[in-house]
Design brief:
Number of strands: 10
CATH class of the largest domain: Alpha Beta
Helix content: 25-40%
Shape: globular
CATH topology of the largest domain: Cathepsin B, Chain A
Radius of gyration: 22 Å
CATH architecture of the largest domain: Alpha-Beta Complex
Number of helices: 8
Largest sheet: 8 strands, mixed
Strand content: 5-15%
Length: 313
């Protein structure tokens, strides 16, 4: 029998939250006066974690990726051959040209909208499985994945319970897609570049966690001014994204884009993760910033769930 969902245990928390709302002044929270409403969100999340914490058990670790040094041009070696030695023919030079990489020819065929406002990670898991031929896009399959969260949730992954990046990785493994790794990058550019290289070399999608780590996207391809697996200074110009929030509209982020929309750098930076949040939101900086508590390996970094082995063809 699966462990009971945390959602079924939250009625006492709802009652406590209402008491706190009236005790602190509902009008203040409603209007977010001087940022009090945003701070209340953090207090409520911490109270919920204290009363009904997720299990303390091992989960996928977060791997902090060390920034790569800036590429440098190696000096041209001097010709030391004697006249009597015949030089080998020069290798064919690698041509630098723009690339457009797309894993999925029909994005709508693998798209699944999240069943509720809180099911983005479930839908992202479902879409990755659909891309890899390990699942479908039906509501029944998404509900099946959702109902199994008790097998994968852990405090270190999501302090308020349910889905975190590691839970997505464990779910993928249980459905036949192992070897996904949670990675945290210091730089937005490094995270995007690492994702592009993984897609090119391993032929698998990447899961991103925009909106301060509160949302999930599936990256299925990208455009760049050169192949990042061949040129260390290649610039990634944007990414193809499956956003499970579609066709909803967010009060903060605006309308979501349709399946496989190409998000240029400006749109990626707005959503993932440079946008700093509404007034009063206590950001620690760009990147991962969750209201329920600290995540030392993730806070302020750019978190992705990355494949580490090639796709089985």
């Amino acid at each position: 029998m699966n462990p009971p969902s945390r959602a079924s245990r939250r009625w006492p928390l709802v009652i406590l939250t209402l008491v706190l709302l009236f005790a602190s002044g509902f009008a203040v929270v409603e209007t977010n006066l001087l940022g009090v409403g945003a701070r209340f969100e953090r207090v409520a999340a911490r109270v919920e974690t204290f009363i009904d914490p997720p299990p303390q058990r091992s989960t996928l670790p977060t791997v902090v990726v060390t920034p790569e040094p800036s590429p440098t041009v190696a000096p041209t070696p001097q010709d030391t051959l004697t006249p009597s030695v015949t030089a080998s023919p020069s290798p064919t030079p690698i041509v630098r040209e723009p690339v457009d990489v797309a894993l999925v020819p029909n994005q709508e065929a693998v798209f699944a909208s999240q069943l509720t406002d809180e099911d983005c990670a479930v839908a992202a898991t479902q879409m990755v499985l659909a891309i890899l031929g390990l699942g479908d896009t039906s509501e029944a399959f998404q509900q099946e994945i959702k109902d199994r969260i008790g097998e994968w949730e852990a405090f270190d992954d999501s302090q308020n319970g349910d889905w975190g990046p590691a839970a997505v990785g464990l779910a993928l493994a249980d459905y036949g897609a192992p070897d996904y790794e949670v990675r945290a990058y210091d730089s937005y550019a490094d995270a995007l570049r690492g994702s592009a290289i993984a897609i090119t070399e391993l032929d698998k999608p990447v899961v991103m966690f925009p909106w301060w780590g509160a949302h999930s996207w599936v990256m299925t391809g990208y455009r760049a001014d050169a192949d990042p697996t061949l040129f260390a200074d290649a610039t990634i110009n944007g990414a193809y994204i499956l956003d499970p929030w579609y066709p909803r509209v967010s009060s903060i982020w605006g309308p979501s884009d349709g399946p496989g929309n190409f998000e240029d750098l400006g749109e990626l930076e707005r959503n993932w993760p440079v946008y700093q949040g509404p007034p009063g939101y206590e950001q620690i900086g760009p990147g991962w910033s969750r209201p329920e508590g600290a995540y030392p390996e993730r806070d302020g970094k750019f978190v992705v769930l990355m494949p580490t082995t090639p796709r089985d063809t």
